[in-house]
């Protein structure tokens, strides 16, 4: 991480000019916590978004895609408890009523409002409950309001998800904040959750869109919980320029710094989503090293983390490396099985011990094998279960100890190139079935 990028408190309200709030509108009568959130920028923002690739799109997604098309946004209104998906003309009208209610309260145009909904599909949104409480929602906007807003977008999430970072661009302190929700119906395909990113950086629309897409490819696009892509997936970013830096209009040092800060933020958020998967008992990271190119590295990591058989093995604390090789094999990404090794590691921050060395005379990457005593000193447990295409006689008890940890890394090393990537997921548990077996009722 860049030495000038640091984590701060505040979530979506950490950047200059942004306030937020969240209240309970009782969209679902049984709800006890906030269910409607509002984010507002005192100045109009440049904006960009990525959306679900599902052919069935929620009415809020359709409206937001239309509103964000001109790259100008000033507010976000979001609700949980009802997805407003597959709701026809009435659902479209309700989405617009959400935007207009927020816009009227804030004194802006309905076309400058992002609208998001999450919850049960196929039920009409009781939008009048939101309209009735809009003045209260608006009057409570504050810099501390991120604490109320981050709760309001949760559905089956067990914990809120937010983060903020700051860096220096053009001699000015630039801040980026985010909040998201995501626990189920999450799979590798663009947005894969609801996520709202705010920044006071001055950056034009073209470069903001580019930064968001590049960052999503290696962060949110590398998360899989259950293989489902929601009807409501939305990832947006709003930039109001209040940091005062010279506007970023092209690639270069300032753009690179902004992208690095955005990647730092989004990596944290991606891990938070993966760790809080429905019914999950552990976060699983897959790191692929020594792939032919970045596309192959990412594709392989995604296939491994997305495999239900791998997820089930992780739940059972079973070091069944065969399922990992199987997922790699059907991925269609290039790799050489005979030059592939697999580890299980009890930490995901042990990179310095498991990094390919310099290329040898044949141009292939050699592994830097860690010393067990060094690993133990740092509290790291690791075991190699498959080496260069050959199974190993490994310590099953040690493997089980490693797979009991709350965070586990699957490390796959190859000798096909210099590229590496990471993807995040979780184990597949009995509780996932329970949660989704009675989700609607």
Automatic annotation (TrEMBL):
The active site is at residue 192. The record marks 118-119 as: Involved in the stabilization of negative charge on the oxyanion by the formation of the oxyanion hole. Transmembrane segments: none annotated. It is found in: Cytoplasm. Coiled coil: none annotated. Pathway: Amino-acid biosynthesis; L-arginine biosynthesis; L-ornithine and N-acetyl-L-glutamate from L-glutamate and N(2)-acetyl-L-ornithine (cyclic): step 1/1; Amino-acid biosynthesis; L-arginine biosynthesis; N(2)-acetyl-L-ornithine from L-glutamate: step 1/4. CDD domains: OAT. The keyword Transferase applies. The gene is argJ. The record marks 191-192 as: Cleavage. Substrate binds at residues 155, 181, 192, 278, 436, 441. Heterotetramer of two alpha and two beta chains. It catalyses: L-glutamate + acetyl-CoA = N-acetyl-L-glutamate + CoA + H(+); N(2)-acetyl-L-ornithine + L-glutamate = N-acetyl-L-glutamate + L-ornithine. It comes from Treponema parvum. This is Arginine biosynthesis bifunctional protein ArgJ. Keywords: Acyltransferase, Amino-acid biosynthesis, Arginine biosynthesis, Autocatalytic cleavage, Cytoplasm, Multifunctional enzyme, Transferase. Catalyzes two activities which are involved in the cyclic version of arginine biosynthesis: the synthesis of N-acetylglutamate from glutamate and acetyl-CoA as the acetyl donor, and of ornithine by transacetylation between N(2)-acetylornithine and glutamate. GO terms for molecular function: L-glutamate N-acetyltransferase activity; L-glutamate N-acetyltransferase activity, acting on acetyl-L-ornithine as donor. Its EC number is 2.3.1.35, 2.3.1.1. InterPro entries: Arg_biosynth_ArgJ, ArgJ-like_dom_sf, ArgJ_beta_C. GO terms for cellular component: cytoplasm. The keyword Lipid metabolism does not apply. HAMAP family: ArgJ. It comes from the Bacteria.
């Amino acid at each position: 991480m860049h030495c000038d990028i640091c984590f701060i408190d505040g979530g979506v309200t950490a950047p200059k000019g942004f306030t937020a709030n969240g209240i309970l509108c009782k969209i679902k009568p049984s709800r006890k916590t906030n269910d409607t959130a509002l984010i507002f920028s005192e100045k109009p923002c440049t904006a960009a978004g990525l959306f679900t690739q599902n052919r069935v799109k929620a009415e809020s997604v359709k409206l937001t895609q239309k509103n964000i098309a001109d790259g100008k946004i000033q507010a976000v209104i979001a609700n949980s408890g009802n997805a407003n998906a597959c709701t026809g003309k009435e659902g479209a009208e309700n989405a617009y009523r959400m935007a207009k209610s927020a816009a009227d309260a804030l004194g802006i145009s309905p076309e400058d409002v992002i609208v998001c909904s999450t919850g049960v599909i196929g039920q009409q949104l009781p939008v009048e409950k939101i309209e009735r409480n809009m003045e209260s929602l608006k009057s409570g906007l504050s810099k501390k309001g991120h604490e109320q807003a981050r709760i309001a977008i949760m559905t089956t999430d067990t914990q809120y998800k937010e983060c903020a970072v700051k860096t220096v661009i053009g001699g000015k302190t630039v801040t980026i904040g985010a909040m998201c929700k995501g626990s189920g119906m999450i799979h590798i395909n663009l947005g894969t959750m609801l996520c709202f990113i705010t920044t006071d950086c001055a950056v034009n629309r073209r470069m903001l869109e580019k930064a968001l897409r590049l960052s999503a490819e290696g962060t949110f696009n590398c998360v899989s919980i259950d293989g489902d892509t929601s009807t409501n997936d939305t990832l947006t970013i709003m930039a109001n320029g209040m940091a005062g830096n010279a506007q970023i209009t092209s690639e270069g040092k300032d753009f690179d710094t902004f992208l690095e800060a955005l990647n730092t933020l989004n990596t944290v958020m991606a891990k938070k989503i993966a760790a809080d998967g429905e019914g999950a008992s552990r976060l699983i990271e897959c790191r692929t090293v020594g792939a032919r190119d970045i596309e192959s590295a990412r594709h392989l990591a995604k296939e491994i983390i997305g495999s239900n058989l791998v997820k089930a093995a992780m739940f059972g604390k079973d070091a069944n490396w065969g399922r990992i090789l199987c997922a790699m094999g059907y991925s269609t990404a290039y790799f050489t099985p005979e030059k592939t090794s697999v580890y299980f590691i009890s930490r995901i921050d042990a990179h310095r011990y498991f990094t390919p060395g310099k290329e040898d005379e044949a141009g292939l990457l050699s592994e830097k094998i860690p010393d067990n005593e060094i690993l133990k000193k740092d509290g790291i447990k690791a075991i190699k279960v498959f080496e260069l295409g050959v199974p190993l006689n490994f310590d099953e008890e040690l493997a089980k100890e490693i797979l009991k940890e709350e965070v586990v890394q699957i490390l796959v090393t190859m000798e096909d190139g210099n590229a590496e990537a990471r993807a995040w997921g979780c184990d597949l548990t009995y509780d996932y079935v329970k949660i989704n077996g009675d989700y609607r009722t």
